[in-house]
Amino acid sequence: MANPLTGKRILLGITGSIAAYKGADLASKLTQAGAVLDVILTRSAEKFITPLTFQSLTGRKCYTDDDLWGGEGHVTHIGLGRAAEMVVIAPASATTLARLANGFGDTLLSLAVLASHSPLILAPAMDVGMYMHPATQANVETLRSRGAHFIGPAEGRMASGLVGFGRFVEPADILRELRFLASSGGPLNGKKLVVTAGGSQEAIDPVRLITNRSSGKQGYAVAQAALDAGAKVTLISAPTSLTPPFGAEVIPVKSAAEMQQAVIHACQDADVLIMAAAVADFRPANPSAQKIKKTGDPLTIQLEPTQDILAEIAQRRERLPKLQKVIGFAAESQDLLANARKKLEAKKLDLIVANDISASDAGFEVDTNRVTFIMGDGTMNSRPLSTKEEVAAQIINQVIDWLS
User: Fold this and answer.
1) Which residues form the catalytic set?
2) Which residue has the higher pLDDT, 235 or 378?
3) What global pTM score does this model have?
C-alpha cells in the first residue's frame, strides 16, 4: 500500500506570515512524498518569500496574483481549483480566513478555493491576539461549519514575543495529518486493525527491568501502512522513542500482562490482529518492591513464563466472531522456518512473518528486514531485504486481499 499522498494533486496556498518559510518546508516534504503540487502565493506572502523558492522545491510553476490577469486569467483560478484533489492553505493568515469565510473572490487563491469542490485544510498562523479575536474566531467557526479542516494552531511563543495559541504547526506534523486525511476511503475503510509494537518490560525492582532489543519500528510501520489503507487502527505499544502515526488510537503498555489485557479488549470489535511486538517470554517471579542493593554477592533472579497472548487469542477465537485474521511474527536466531511453522500451528495463525534476528541487516534496531511469509496453509514466500515500511506494505496488501 503506497503513501496516499503519492500522485495526489494538491493546491498549496501560502499567505502573509513569517511562517511562510515553513510553508516552503511543507512544500518540499509534500513533493518528496510524491504529491503533485501547485503553489499560489498571495501578495502579502511575496513580502516574505519568493515564487522562485517554491518553483525550485516543487519543479513546477508557482502562481501569484499576477497570473490572475495574464493571458489565461479567465481560466487560471478555475483550472487550479478544479484540478486539486485537496486544497491546503499553510500558513493561513487572519485576512485569508476572513476572505474565505465571507466568500471574497479578490485574489487568485480565494478564487481558486471558490472554484474547488475538494477538501479544504487550513493551518492558521498569526499572533495570539489576532487568533483569539472574536472576528477571527467567528470566521474559524464559519469555515468549520462548511467542512473546512483545521490543523492547529499550536500554542507557543510568537514572533511578537507573546505566548499563546496562534503558532504555526510544524511542517512534519502537518504532513502526517495530511497523509491521514488523504487515506480516507481506502481499501480497508470501515475495518479495524489492532497492531502491537515494541518490546515489553518486566520489572525486577522499581529501578531495573528485563526487556529486549525491539525498537518498535516494524510494528509502527505496520500501523502506518494500515492507516494509509484507510483502516481504523489501535496501536498497542510498549515503550519506544518513536512517534506514533497520526490517526492511530495509541494504548501504551509496559508488561506482557498489560499488553495481553489491552489486546483482548481491543480485539472485541477488531477485524485483524497483527502481533508485531516482541513480548518477553519470561518475567521475574518475585519482583522486589524496593530497589535491590548491591552487596558484592551474586544475585539470583527466578524467572517464570509470561502470558502467551497469541495462545490466549487462539483459545478465544470462537468468542471473537468479528476477528477474521491473526498475524504473528517469529524472531528467531536459529532454525528459523521450523520454529516459525511450529508457532504458526500452535497459535492457529493465518500468517506468520519470520525473520532471522542473527543477521546484522535485519531484525531488531535496524531499518531493514529480510522476512519469509508462511501462510496458514503452509505456503511460503521469502522476501528480499526490504525496508520495514516495504515489509509493512506487503503485510497490509495481504490483509487487503483477504478482506476484499
Assistant:
1) 212
2) 235
3) 0.92
